[in-house]
Amino acid sequence: MDFVAILSIFVMACFVGYYVVWSVTPALHTPLMAVTNAISSVIIVGALIASSAAAGGSASSKWLGLVAVTLASVNIFGGFAVTARMLAMYKKKERPAAK
Amino acid sequence: MEHTAPVNPWVALAYLISGACFILALRGLSSPASSQRGNRFGMIGMALAVGTTLFVHEIASLPEILIAMAIGAAIGIVTARKIAMTDMPQLVAAFHSLVGMAAVLVACAAYLNPEAFGIAGPDGEILTVSRIEMGLGVAIGAITFSGSVIAFLKLNGNMGGKPIMLPGRHVINLGVLAGILGLIAWFTQDQSPWIFWTVTGLSFAIGFLLIIPIGGADMPVVVSMLNSYSGWAAAAMGFTLHNTAMIITGALVGSSGAILSYIMCRAMNRSFISVIAGGFGGDTAGGAAAAATDRPWKRGSAEDAAFLMQQAEQVIIVPGYGMAVAQAQHVLREMGDKLKEHGVRVKYAIHPVAGRMPGHMNVLLAEANVPYDEVFELEDINSEFAQTDVAFVIGANDVTNPAAKTDKSSPIYGMPVLDVEKAKTVLFVKRSMGGVGYAGVDNDVFYMDNTMMLLADAKKMVEEIVKSLD
Fold first, then answer.
1. Chain B: nearest CA to A31, how far in angstroms?
2. Which residues of chain A make contact with B117, given a CB cutoff of 8 A?
3. CA B46, CA B29: separation in Å to the nearest integer?
4. How far apart are CA B86 and CA B92, in angstroms?
5. What CA–CA distance (Å, rounded) separates B266 from B281?
6. Inter-CA distances, B466 with A76, B318, B388, B450, Å
7. Tens digits of residue pLDDT in B341-372
8. Does B465 touch chain A (CB under 8 A)?
9. With an 8 Å Cβ cutoff, is B234 touching chain A?
10. Core-most of B38, B51, B206, B362, by most CB within 10 Å?
């Protein structure tokens, strides 16, 4: 892909991000931070590429990649788990009466 | 072995779908009802991105990778299960630091082994455009890491919340920033290791320098800002790797953090620049407040509070960071339940900057089983205080201060506040009369005729009120 194609995706995604995030209810801003945290760990893709590099590549690059895989995994599993835990706590009133 | 450049279209498609799943994950958060489904979309997107990467790359070391992931997963899941909801701000800061560090490590790995990432030119040198992306990625990642570590230490109480001011810090910071940008520009001409490592080192330093002068009350902005940085770091690495999933995610997370920072700044009526410049929430404003505490005020007991609230038609509870510190959310909900048994209407009013991160109070109330449709944002409930019998302020202070509306000399002038003083009676739970809020200003609400101060630990006070309500 050439640079301009990638840049277009990026700019469009910024606009999507802008509108999507404004539509998030303020009550869920903490889960929003937790889940954005989890998804920004998609950087694990880069870490996997580094650590899966075959022999011939530099060994230090592979180890850096493996450490990054570990860190990003903490974030992915921890981030999604803690978001799920928080979201499960948000409940509506049991009786649909008042309001 | 082929590299990323002319990829299989299915692979590009898989990353695109994974990016779309992340958009749906955030979209789900527009209401609590759809939020859990959104979170599942996020997990699907992540699984797809990881699976695709493992599938298309020649894996020379699958066992090591699986072990690394298993270690990370175990740490992550155990932490997520065990963490107390009041400690969420620290946890989020810690997670940000991990994303930052991972970005730095990936950038270093790409620098050391550009062939594996498909960013090496025919002569073995790294492509110019990739050098810029890599330089920015490592810089933003390092700032995210060291900044988040400081934010974590401050939020976790390992480091005082007070701003630490170095002399000439603005000059130092600007100099270091200019140095980083200059070196990245030079890096495009000359890919010597020393330039790359100096950029990395300076970026770690600037992250540290930027956050230490920022006080505890500004932490919601800082946490949101670091959230944003972690996104931009991911986006920069996405450019390096030509990976759509990373670019979309980076843009989403980057805008999300930026919008949250903006919302927090607006809720404090402060410019982003003044927050970043730091120094707010120090001791400087203490003098005037101390002199003013000679004014008369009324003290109430738990029985008085219980009696007043039982008689009320509507009670609005205004929680703040003090509630979180005292862990009073559960007993507060019990109090709400008791009041409802007495036929009182109970609502909760949340100021956007109550607590240490955006939405902090909402999560704590949700944890205590307060239904989310009883919890209101400032603009939705502020007009109701005038028709409310009792405003029950617990652990909040500056966000109720009417000086923000009237006193132009006040440091919080212009900040949107909850109009608690308009309620017939204000019950103000506070540890002691001596302390002032983070802004260091006195609150006129304490001395009003219709205010009753309930001086005690928030949790103990509410427990006593619950007892008196029986």
1. 8
2. 46, 49-50
3. 17
4. 12
5. 17
6. 41, 17, 20, 22
7. 999 999 999 998 888 888 889 999 999 999 98
8. no
9. yes
10. B362
